[in-house]
Amino acid sequence: MFAKGHMEKWVDAWNNHDLKTVLSMYSDSVEFSSPKVKVVFPDRKSSKITNKSDLERYWTEALKNNFPNLHFTLKDMLSQNKTCILEYYATLDGKSKTSVIEKFEFQDGIIIRSSVFYGPEEPV
Q1: Which of 7, 47, 86, 90 has minimal Cβ neighbours within 10 Å of its Cβ?
Q2: Whole-angstrom distance, CA of residue 39 vs CA of residue 97
Q3: Residue 103 above 90 pLDDT?
Q4: Which domains does the chain have, with CATH numbers?
Q5: 1 pLDDT higher than 80
Q6: 3-class secondary structure, 44
Q7: Considering the chain, what is the average pLDDT of its residues?
Q8: What are phi and psi of 14, to 5 degrees?
Q9: 93 burial level (CB within 10 Å; 0-12, 13-18, 19+)
Q10: Mean pLDDT of 43-70
Q11: Which residues pair with 42 in a beta bridge?
Q12: pLDDT band at 105, cuts 50/70/90?
């Protein structure tokens, strides 16, 4: 039940572009990886972020300049022990949606690790 409530709060916060709430769900020493990191910061050598401060910078920049119309639609969720797999659609530009699978690992009720995997785009 914890993971379901946590992930619903996460989706709602994202859809409201409420980064303060989203970031409150992550550890200060979070490990986050996504191929979109290099889209937002093309000069970066790695698609991995290893602290909440850099994660905040990435998401702020992404929402402002790359994905201002970002919206998530929850499809499915699997949870076991301290791991949750979330499947959702990400609408990045209002015209197409991308299937996304994100794996979250929790410790003491907060996200310590997250990895994002993108599928193909399709029309909205």
Answers
A1: 47
A2: 17
A3: yes
A4: 2-123 (3.10.450.50)
A5: no
A6: coil
A7: 93
A8: -60, -45
A9: middle
A10: 94
A11: none
A12: very high
Cβ 30 vs Cβ 49: under 8 Å: yes
Query: What letter represents residue 18's amino acid?
Result: D
From CA 107, how far away is CA 41, in angstroms rounded?
A: 29
pLDDT in tens, 63-97: 998 889 999 999 999 999 999 999 999 998 788 89
Residue 6 has pLDDT above 90, yes or no: no
Strands 48-49 and 71-80: unpaired
Q: Which residue has the tokens 């907060």?
A: 110
Q: Which amino acid is at 6?
A: H
